[in-house]
Each structure stands twice: as C-alpha cells, then as structure tokens.
Amino acid sequence: MERADRITKVGAVANMGMAALKGVVGTAACSPALQADAVHSLSDLVSDGVSLWALHRARRPPDKYYPYGHGKFEAVGSACVGGLLVAAGGGIGIHAIQAAVDACSAVEVSQAALGLQLGAAAVAALSVGIKEALYRQTLTVAAEVRSSTLAANAWHHRSDALSSVVALVGIGGCACGVPLLDPLAGVVVSALILKEGASIGSQALGELTDSQVEPPPPPSPSPSPATRHPP
C-alpha cells in the first residue's frame, strides 16, 4: 500500500503542474489542442484523488455493514475514473469542434507568434515523457498490489501521454501554416479520452455486477459403477 500511495501522490503532483503549465501556455499560444490536454491533466488530478480514496477504502477489514469486505470499492473507484474521463472527453470535444468550425468558416482566429507555438510544442513533448513514465511505474505497482483502480489510473496516464502526442502534431501543423490541424487534434484527443473512459467504465461496471466473475469449475465426474472399488 505504501508504494501505491507514493506513486499516486507523485502522479497527483505531476498532474497539477502539467495542468497549470499546459493551461497557461495553451492559452497564450491560442492552442485548442494544448488547452484540451490541460483539461485532461486536470481530470487526471481528480482521478488521483479518487484512486487514493478507493485504495484505502477497499483495504478496510470486514465489518457489520460489509461482512464480505470492501473490495468492491476498487471497482467503484475505477467506475469513477471512467466517468471522469468521459466527462472530460465530452467537454474537450465540444470546445475543439467549435474551434474547428471557426477555422473553417473564416471566423477570425488569433494566431500566436512562432515562439509561443514552439513553446506549446515543447510543453506537449514534456508531457509525453512525464506521463509515459508515470504510466509504466503506476502499472507496475498496480500489478504488485493487484489494484484495478490503480491500473485504471495508469491507463489514464497513458491516455494523457497519447493526447499530448496528438496535441504535439496539431501544434506543429499550426506552426507550419495549417491552423486547422490544431483544433482537429483537439477533436482526436477528445475521442481518445472518450474511448478510454468508456472502456474503463464498462469493465468496472462488469465487476460491480459480477459479470466478470469467473464461473466455478465443473464438478468432477463421479466414477462409473465399473470402476468403483468394492467396499
């Protein structure tokens, strides 16, 4: 549990810093993709808190209200993480689609200086490295402590790394004179987040409803009368 707490807290600190950095630089560079990525990092921060709560609650001993233990709270935590991802992905998608519509309909969109765009690209690249490292470390600890909530949080880190890759492509395209690529990258980021959230949420709901419980082994066939030993 100590390692699980430590890696989750490290992730929370990293998510707090990356959300703030992406938000400030994304706003300054007028980058919908990086702004979307900032919201994703912020949702990661919330999921870190949910993960810590679920980890501690699931390991409480049985009591009169939960005579079979608190293990289902792991699935509750995973379901919450999935729901947060879906909500974040939906909000990001709406914002990115509006930015893409504005770009296509010749609505005046402020263009950032090349220096700001390069700064936004550097932040996205930094996010890729940090979140991929967090994904690997968190997944390792999740396997050690057998925590589905921690595994879900690990994949949340991975989805953030992937969304940063997409944001990096969009920012690069904008810097090369194709501004439509940036909001389109935001739409792709939204789709990635929605897909990951739906996957995590459906697995958690399956665990809560016992649809993923392994069936009991079939009973051993009783010996035939010919093979029975005499008393």
Give an overview of the whole structure.
With 231 residues, the chain is an all-alpha fold. It is 76% helix and 0% strand. It has six helices and no strands. Helix 5 packs antiparallel against helix 6. The radius of gyration is 23 Å and the shape is elongated. It starts with a helix and ends in a 23-residue tail after the last helix. About 4% of the residues have low confidence.
Task: Briefly characterize the structure.
With 231 residues, the protein is an all-alpha fold. 76% of the residues lie in helices and 0% in strands.
Keywords:
231 residues; mainly alpha; 0% strand; 76% helix; elongated; 6 helices
| Structure classification | mainly alpha
How do the helices and strands follow one another from N- to C-terminus? HHHHHH
Helix content: over 70%
**Number of helical runs?**
6
Compute the CA-based radius of gyration: 23 Å
